[in-house]
Amino acid sequence: MRQELDDALVRDFPNLYADRKSTKVPFCWGFECGDGWEPLIRKLSEEIEAIIVAMPQKERKKFRVKQVKEKFGTLRFYMGVAHDGISAVIDRAELQSAVTCEVCGKPGTNRSLSVLCDEHHAERRKKR
Ligand SMILES: [Zn+2]
Predict the structure, then answer these.
(1) For the whole model, what pTM was predicted?
(2) Tally of structural domains, the chain
């Protein structure tokens, strides 16, 4: 993901992305997916950040992102601990990523392990 999009997410959701610069977690590599999924990740972040902010201060630090990446064509969003409300939000975003072009965010389908719209699928085939 482009640096400016990455920076904006980390700035806007300071609890969820508190470990962005921690070298102890894979999240130090940033958001390992295309720009097309940024709106999806932003929406998910808004929902989860709101859940975290509603918790007592000392609980909040348990709920930090460990890794965000693309795997087999879908978004994978890893956090340290399980929480029903948060898991539901993540599941929904992961399902949505399976039909969203990772390059531009338009509707897409999974084409040999990456989700692309028609335009970006054609473009990628030309390059090969
Ligand atoms: Zn596209």
Answers:
(1) 0.91
(2) 1
